[in-house]
Amino acid sequence: MKKIKWDKGHGGSDPGAVANGLKEKDLTHRIVEYAMDYLEANYTGFEQRTTRAGDQTLTLSQRADMANKWGADVFISVHINAGKGTGFEIYVHPNASPQSVALQNVLHGEILSAIQQFENITDRGKKRANYAVLRETKMPAVLTENLFIDSNDAKLLKNEAFLKAVGEAHARGVAKFLGLPQKAKPQPQTQQKPQQKASNQKLYRVQVGSFSDRKNAERLAAELKKKGYPAIIV
Ligand SMILES: [Zn+2]
């Protein structure tokens, strides 16, 4: 059973970077939640926890300690960049283990390709920095900076589908790195059974008109109702 520790960058009294009506902590929490949902839905053989289930204020060392005490196999800290740049970058510690570098490589590829399906955003590359959560964690650890909150990148960060895609790419990368087995997909046969049952009690619908102008549809529906027929507009 592999243990995955997700770190939602910022929270509580620390919102992280704030610009363009966005708070870094709101975005990182969404991304991590999408990542966790995706893993839950598609893979087995793991347990996952986040450094904060809600919006607690935590120090960097507290978050690293939590991962160490739990004995996590992997630690992923999710952030949004600031400083008016553009693009995606991913960090490991300057003295990173080969496993951390392997995790960085897999996640870099997955996340970048997900981002580039929305826009041809700059690859700022695989970097190294002496960040506390990377320095103090004992397992393979990375920190992602997912675009800039205070530049043109913000328009992508306001797109929920984008946050979902970025979260799911984090999940796929972690699953690949840990070699998590995929959940069996439901067989088509088991999906047909309820349909066969339902066919014993068929419903017949009568369509009485289709209109390009909704007003005409409403007029006919009103007329039918007046005559005692239930009418719905689809
Ligand atoms: Zn941050």
Spatial order of the strands in the main sheet?
A: 4-1-5-8-6-7
Main beta sheet, described?
6 strands, mixed
CA-based gyration radius: 24 Å
* CATH homolog superfamily of the largest domain: Zn-dependent exopeptidases
Keywords: Hydrolase
EC number: 3.5.1.28
GO molecular function: N-acetylmuramoyl-L-alanine amidase activity; peptidoglycan binding
GO biological process, one term: peptidoglycan catabolic process
Task: Please give a quick description of this structure.
Helices cover 43% and strands 18% of the residues. It is of the alpha/beta class and 234 residues long. The protein folds into 2 domains: 2-178, 3-Layer(aba) Sandwich (Aminopeptidase); 190-226, no CATH class.
Notes on the structure:
With 234 residues, this protein is an alpha/beta fold. The chain has 2 domains: 2-178, 3-Layer(aba) Sandwich (Aminopeptidase); 190-226, no CATH class. Helices cover 43% and strands 18% of the residues. The protein has 8 helices and 8 strands; from the N terminus they run βββαβαββαβαβαααα. Strands 4-1-5-8-6-7 form a 6-stranded mixed sheet, with helices on both faces. It has a two-stranded antiparallel sheet with strand order 2-3. The chain is elongated and about 80 Å long. The site of zinc ion (ZN) has 5 residues, from loops.
